[in-house]
Specification:
It is found in: Membrane. Pfam families: Sugar_tr. This is Major facilitator superfamily (MFS) profile domain-containing protein. The protein is mainly alpha-helical and 498 residues long. The chain has two domains: 395 residues, Growth Hormone, Chain: A, CATH 1.20.1250; 45 residues. The longest helix is centred in the first third of the chain and has 36 residues. The radius of gyration is 24 Å and the shape is globular.
């Protein structure tokens, strides 16, 4: 995504694909080209939608590791097709293929990570994605910057300035293809598909215990009980509620992923170089340097999320991040307004807000919403729910990729105000509807929703269950006065679970 975004202002790229050129055009032609540019960039997300939705079927049929392997292979094909494009049509097809591979990959990895992680480390294991995503974005933009200085001559074709950054994308999925063959399959998927012996073996390895130990027995029993209680496992179950509130959970997963996009992160990521060059008035070199340095904040944001996600919980990070991102977007609207003109102080503050936005969004959204979607979905339909929730990411990604160049062209800096308002509205949405899931086994999260009777119950039930856990831990019996949202289930087990 970031590689392509950094090439949009490159002369050699625009010479090859003049229908996407918004740098050397003006007036109606620039408006038309900006729409074409937005559509072509957004086609990547169309592929992502179909790639994610394919996991509704293939996610449970093939297993987590095989899907990860195959989607990385498709990603390599897409990267090579893009880098070898001479015709506009080939570039368009390549964007779709690339999105298809990455869409399926992104829909599967958080599920696999969640299912192989112990409850007390699940959050930190999954949000490490933010560290590597940030590092990848930074690497992509620095490669763009380095190859910006490559000019055509009798020895080197000038198109290498954009072809090499595009083909370089293939290195990472090739690496992932090699390593996934050395890593374990999800024990929950193995047990779900009837391979209990292999699932027990993987669980024992993950828990560093003997296969016949009590902790492995308890985890296998909990997984099997969850499979019994949560329905048939058909992907269409997510559109029914029932005792386990499956539709409610699928809706929360998709809504969280919508928040991840509507906070505005890809408005910044896709068009960082364009924003600095066209809207903040920087020259081509400085705009690329500043844009390439901005994602360097993301690994630090990822590290902060890593150290806080299992200590503070999911809800505090989401709430704090949404509020802070609203302030950043409002600040951007003010510092880039026509009234600020060429004021150096306003320009500096605009850059500060952009950097702060990148950092904060990594803390609250880069991996957290994918983690949350995987956590709240029951095992039977976890792959399907994550496929649909990830398709939601790509759908809103497509929407924003389409609207961003048009939005900036039509309303300029006021486009930031839209996202300031959206982030402000996310705060009460998370507070009232999203339950805390930290330190819960995936099977205990099923119990939160089994005890809930309406859309407002899960946060309250999760707090009540946490109080029960604390009382059991200190040796006190749970209070007999139950909240009317709770069932008469036995007190929570406190043995460690995967």
């Amino acid at each position: 995504m970031s590689v392509a975004g950094g090439l949009l202002t490159l002369d050699a790229f625009n010479d090859q694909f003049p229908r996407m050129d918004t740098i050397h055009t003006s007036g109606d032609l620039q408006q038309q080209n900006s729409q074409i540019q937005g559509t072509v960039i957004a086609l990547f997300t169309v592929g992502g939608i179909f790639g994610a939705l394919s996991c509704v079927y293939f996610g449970d049929r093939w297993g987590r590791r095989k899907v990860i392997f195959i989607t990385n292979f498709i990603t390599i094909i897409g990267a090579v097709l893009m880098a070898t494009s001479f015709q506009f049509a080939q570039f368009i097809v390549a964007r779709l293929v690339l999105g298809l591979g990455i869409g399926g990959y992104v829909a599967t990895v958080p599920v696999w990570q969640s299912e192989i992680s112990p409850s007390h480390m699940r959050g930190s294991n999954v949000v490490t994605d933010g560290i590597f995503v940030g590092s990848g974005v930074a690497l992509a933009l620095w490669i763009d910057l380095g190859f910006y200085f490559v000019k055509g001559n009798s020895v080197i074709d000038g198109s290498v300035s954009w072809r090499f950054p595009l083909v370089f994308q293939a290195i990472m999925p090739a690496t992932a293809m090699v390593f996934i063959t050395m890593l374990p399959e999800s024990p929950r998927w193995l047990i779900k598909t009837g391979n209990v012996a292999q699932g027990r073996k993987v669980l024992a390895a993950l828990l560093d215990a003997e296969e016949d130990s009590d902790i492995v027995d308890n985890n296998v029993r909990d997984i099997e009980e969850s499979l019994v209680h949560c329905g048939s496992g058909a992907w269409t179950d997510m559109f029914t509620n029932g005792e386990q509130r499956l539709f409610h959970r699928a809706y929360l997963a998709a809504t969280g992923q919508m928040f991840q996009q509507m906070c505005g992160i890809n408005v910044i990521t896709y068009y960082a170089t364009t924003i600095f060059e066209q809207y903040l008035g920087m020259n081509p070199v400085n705009s690329r340097i500043v844009a390439a340095a901005m994602p360097l904040t993301q690994p630090f944001g990822g590290y902060l999320a890593y150290y806080t996600i299992d200590r503070l919980g999911r809800r505090p990070l989401l709430l704090w991040s949404a509020g802070a991102l609203s302030v950043c977007m409002a600040g951007l609207a003010g510092t880039t307004s026509p009234a600020a003109g060429d004021n150096t102080g306003a320009l500096v503050m605009a850059v500060v807000f952009l950097y702060a936005f990148q950092f904060i969004s990594t803390v609250g959204y880069a991996g957290l919403t994918f983690l949350y979607a995987a956590e709240i979905a029951p095992l039977q339909i976890r792959a399907a729910v994550n496929a649909v929730s990830t398709a939601t990411v790509w759908s809103f990604n497509f929407l924003l990729a389409q609207l961003t160049p048009i939005g900036f062209a039509r309303i300029g800096n006021n486009f930031y105000i839209v996202f300031a308002v959206i982030n402000a509205l996310i705060v009460p949405s998370v507070y009232f509807f999203f339950p805390e899931t930290k330190e819960r086994s995936l099977e205990e999260i099923d119990e939160i929703f089994a005890r809930s009777k309406n859309i407002f119950d899960p946060p309250r039930v999760a707090r009540a269950m946490q109080r029960e856990r604390q009382m059991v831990y200190i040796g006190e019996p749970p209070s007999e006065a139950r909240d009317n949202t709770e069932s008469s289930d036995d007190a929570l087990k406190v043995e460690p679970k995967a």
